[in-house]
Amino acid sequence: MQVTRFPQRATGPAERLSGFAAHLRMNGIPAGLPETETALAALGVVDASRMADVRLALKAVCTGDADANGRFDDLFDAYWLNRGRKRDGTAATHSSRNASADSGRTYRMASGASDEEGEADTPDDDTEAASTGTGTGRLVASTTRSIEKTDLRKLMTPEDLQRAERVAEAIARSMRDRRSRRFKAASRGEALDMRKILRRSVQRGGEPIELFRKARPDRPVNIVALLDVSGSMTVYARVFLAFLKGLVSADHRTDAYLFHTQLVRISDALRDSDTMRAVNRLSIMAQGFGGGTKIGANLKQFNAQHAAQSVNGRSVVIILSDGYDTDPPEILAQELARLRRRGARIVWLNPLRGWDGYEPVARGMAAALPHLDHFAAANTLDDLVALEPWLNRL
Amino acid sequence: MSRHQTSWQQLQADLADTGYVASDDLAMALFLAVTLGKPLLLEGPAGVGKTQVAKSLSELQSTKLIRLQCYEGLDASHAIYEWNYQRQLLAIRAAAEEQKPSTEIEDHVFSEKFLLQRPLLEAIRQETPAVLLIDEIDRADEEFEAYLLEVLSDFQITIPELGTVPARSRPHVVLTANGARDLSDALRRRCLYSFVDYPDRRTEMAILQARAPELEARLAEQIVGFVQALRKEELEKKPGIAEMLDWAAALGGLGVNDLADDPEQTQATLVCLLKTERDRAAVPKEVQQRLVGRAA
């Protein structure tokens, strides 16, 4: 039998439970005062002396989605059985963050975290000076232009990257299709179509018997983005990740995934309002970042696990990858075809395509081409901007 | 019969009597939902019996099951209440001929008599707590989800012309979702939660025995083994519990005693389990025989 120990100062069940809620919060499960209250009430109606009952009850109260539900048992053990795993999430995070910082290129996974330490030892760059020093609109505009046209590989200083990330995020946000101001007639809707009602009521002596309504038109697309973060893509990964963050935060239907040798869903981490926690969550997820690529296998996994929920006839699947695949190309082609049968449109953004004389000769890329609706370059921010008109046409 | 369950094990046993085999997780969540009066959100793949939970609960409590099937574009007037507009107009006309004062007419046409109850209003106005099933909430729009929040946390509905309608009884609310889209945190946090997965072999066996007790034990073993193995294959639509039961019924109806006896017939009955052209192509006779072999 495991010994249950509590923080020394914990005096009663309420405090122990609120400690548990804090423990859950620290591990990314939103549990607050209402949950604690419900948990207390729940323990009042079950046999609180039985560990199994307490576990089941708290699980029903404190978890809110399948992911949290799956992780709950470990977190429960870590807290109530005091196996010293209370902080393992944070600890792992720290080391992996440092590890990635050492590699030099990918210190941060998500934009927006404080970046003060880089300032002192980076060489002075004149674009930054121009925008802050003179402050005229024109200069600012021209420097922004230039960063949009620069090949993302050349953005190397932390400031450049940070700005590119911000621009990428802004592009993604603006790409969200704006809701139409105009209504259109619909069988049911949020507003009465007075014009039509009056018109039809004429034949009944002005009595508006039939009610017509109008609604806002459907938003046309939802976006699912898959980002390749394998070794060959690391130079682009940060900016693309910022782009994804922009997409995800602009529209809550957007779903985002990373893949290298594994596939990881990152939408929730990108949505995390606590930037530091988002960084931590992402860096745990990105173990394997910069390694090999298995596009085919990852797409297969995506199709099997996630596509049923996130892809439908109004989806656009954006794949950001250079197409270098270690899997046989047939798998990639087969999985793309399968994805397409779901009715999704597939956009492949390939940073290599922007290079002069690029031919899609990589076997994976060649196999993928017949299944794509749109194949475009993505080595400058302008290329990302160019995606918007294409999306709007859908 | 209406019974009050004093523990989750009791509830689990009672549910089993109605033919619903619930996992410990689910039984506990349901017990807390009933006891604490909180909504219960169930997620999981299609065909694992999420909707059935509500049906069984209403059967157990001998109360009315009020079902609200969600769909894209579902709005308040279809879910909560609506005024009977045509009748109101007629009443106004009739009243106008009698030269009634307008305030009286107004009070009259905005009275209960002209109110059309939709599922949510109906649910909170039951004398005994009903079971309110809000099915596939993830199909409804976010706007509707927001409407629900008021109902789910306060169990009251505000009708501008009539005022606030408080609940006569608090319904037991069961929400189901398939993950068509992410639900809002606000909704999730107002609900208890349970993830319902495909049953394990033992549970599925119990379900089959509860629903089709006439089936021979050996065939039942084979059926469950086959379906369990089939779910591990790569399929577009994995067979759920309902499909499994259909299949068992089909096999029982055809007088099959052993799946291995007649591969042709077994293959023909797979239509009960495999619902797309591709899935049927993915399970040719060789695969079927392999699965039967594994199952036997």
From TrEMBL, chain B:
AAA+ ATPase domain residues: 36-197
| SUPFAM superfamilies per record | P-loop containing nucleoside triphosphate hydrolases (SSF52540)
A GO molecular function annotation here is: ATP hydrolysis activity
Q: Which Pfam families match?
A: AAA_5 (PF07728)
Q: Which SMART domains match?
A: AAA (SM00382)
Q: Which Gene3D superfamilies match?
A: P-loop containing nucleotide triphosphate hydrolases
> Per its UniProt entry, which superkingdom is the organism in?
Bacteria
Q: What is this protein called?
A: MoxR-like ATPase
Write the lineage as a comma-separated list.
Answer: Bacteria, Pseudomonadati, Pseudomonadota, Alphaproteobacteria, Hyphomicrobiales
